[in-house]
Amino acid sequence: MTEADIAKLGPQAAYQAYLDRGRFMIQRAASTGEFVFWPRVSTGTGATDLEWVEARGTGTVYAATVNRTRSGSWNVVLVDLDEGVRMMSTLPDVETVKVGARVKARIENTPDGARVVFDLMTRDAA
């Protein structure tokens, strides 16, 4: 699939296509510079001139929780990306994390497709 083919897809399909190619992309309004996440066709201010740009991949943990079951535990985190948008994900290699910890995104391939997960930038942030 070429970049032109991806551009013809809807927002969610394009986001997933980029992830499947190993690229963490988010949208930005060309006219205002406003970043948006979750992928959509317009911003909260009504701008429709959205373009796909490479995310820096760094951010700060805004909130975290741990889910525990008999089969294991995992965390769910809200991350404020440095671009100013917030996304939900996980930190697969740690159980808990401090609010305010700096994290870096990576793409993890799963049987259900590629997804963005985060790693701590410093180990003392756990």
Describe this structure in words.
It is built from 2 helices and 8 strands. The protein has 2 domains: 52 residues, no CATH class; 68 residues, OB fold (Dihydrolipoamide Acetyltransferase, E2P) (Beta Barrel). The mean pLDDT is 90. The relative contact order is 0.17. Helix content is 12%, strand content 44%. The longest helix has 10 residues. The chain is globular. By secondary structure, the protein is mostly beta strands. It starts with a helix and ends in a 6-residue tail after the last strand.
Helix and strand pattern = HHEEEEEEEE
Number of E-type strands: 8
Q: What is the level 1 CATH name of the largest domain? A: Mainly Beta
Can you summarize the main beta sheet?
Answer: 5 strands, antiparallel
Outline type: globular
The gyration radius over C-alpha positions equals 16 Å
Domain module count? 2
CATH fold descriptor of the largest domain:
OB fold (Dihydrolipoamide Acetyltransferase, E2P)
Helix-strand makeup class: mainly beta
**Spatial arrangement of strands, main beta sheet:** 6-5-4-7-8
Structure, briefly:
The protein is mainly beta.
What keywords describe this structure?
126 residues; 2 domains; mainly beta
Task: Furnish the topology, listing elements before pairings.
Blueprint (H helix, E strand, L loop, with lengths): L2 H5 L3 H10 L4 E5 L5 E2 L13 E5 L3 E12 L2 E10 L4 E4 L12 E9 L2 E8 L6
Antiparallel strand pairs: 1-2, 1-3, 4-5, 4-7, 5-6, 7-8
